[in-house]
Amino acid sequence: MHTIVVIIHVIVSLALVSIVLLQHGKGAGIGAAFGGSSQTVFGSTGAAPFLAKLTAIVAILFMCTSLGLTFMGRQQAPSVMEGAGKPAATQPAPATPATPAPAAPVQPASPGPAAPPSK
Prior knowledge:
The protein has a domain at 1-25 and 49-75. The N and C termini lie far apart (84 Å). Helix content is 44%, strand content 0%. 2% of the residues are buried. It is mostly helical.
């Protein structure tokens, strides 16, 4: 069921983006208003066009699938912070060897070749 809702959610989100990109902006009619168009600049916009109604329907579907996925996610997995109040389990320290391993002798660094004198 969760997978089906995720698939529907992705399809609805792509449809919502596509529908919004197909619409004209609110300011698109202002330029035509000064050119003698019958549209009013600040008046009512009239009946909502088909794309505006479709946008509202798809946006409602998007919100419903988002809420559905949220509720399904809460029921499936517990919170990450659920065990935050409990102290971490202590593990015993690793055993130390009885006799330490002998250290390798340290050789002094040999001086490199002398730099030629500068002129």
